[in-house]
Amino acid sequence: MKVFVTGVSGQLGHDVMLELKSRNIPAVGSDRSGISDEFDVVSLDITDKEKVEEVLSIQKPDAIVHCAAWTNVDGAEEEKARPLVERVNVEGTKNLALMAKKLDAKMIYISTDYVFNGQGTAPWKPDDKNFAPLNFYGETKLGGEKAVSETLDKFFIVRIAWVFGKNGKNFVDTMLKVGKTHPEVKVVDDQIGTPTYCPDLARLLVDMLETEKYGFYHATNEGGFISWADFTKEIFAQAGISSKVIPVSTAEYEKIAGKSVASRPKNSRLDKSKLKESGFTPLPTWQDALSRYLASRDR
Questions:
Q1: What is the C-alpha separation between 116 and 90, in angstroms, rounded?
Q2: Domains recognised in the chain with CATH numbers
Q3: Which residues does the annotation mark as catalytic?
């Protein structure tokens, strides 16, 4: 099996390439620069349909893991940015799906809980259709899902949430910096979900590639549903930071920091039971993942 991975300069794409390398699975990565000291990488703008056709016709992968995306949620709301966001998240995904079909390749598309309406308290199931994205980013990720599911039969659509990993900015690093410089930190406690650690997710994605158990899945770490305030408390506890966490509502936080440009879901709970039902090993607990991440930062 030969795998083609998009977005290798990002957190998840980088770790997918590492996982493939650790299993001696041939892989080629792509990003806009095409430069890497670690992997075999080619330059590719996924919004350029002809270039996608050219590159993938040369590489001839048996599977595509599509990690590249516009992920700046607030930036996506800017009117001038919207055409580019749609080109990247929808049209770029469609370009890859069309080539996957032509090559008879499997495809994994990384999606998000933002495709749902973010309301209620019940965990979202993989096959739920209660789509009503709260922001433009969510709309385009849903558009990407449709581009894949309406084009291919051999696809995995994997929704994740609250991602953190070494190869990029993330919530954990932000809280570590703030906690070391402030005696107390106010963090929202009415947005509920579960973190996803990139190395753990990468392992699952490669496991999926070795099967034909196609469909929609949800994948975050185990360990229970928490708020951002709960996550911050655990970050500080494990890192030995004495800063006090003050839980506040989203409305209270926005009075302090200013209203977010894009609305955020309060219910990011994802039902992951389908992973076990399909024979996949769930991700470890987020507490364990956080411990391993903090240890990796010290190396």
A1: 17
A2: 3-169+194-222+270-283 (3.40.50.720)
A3: 137
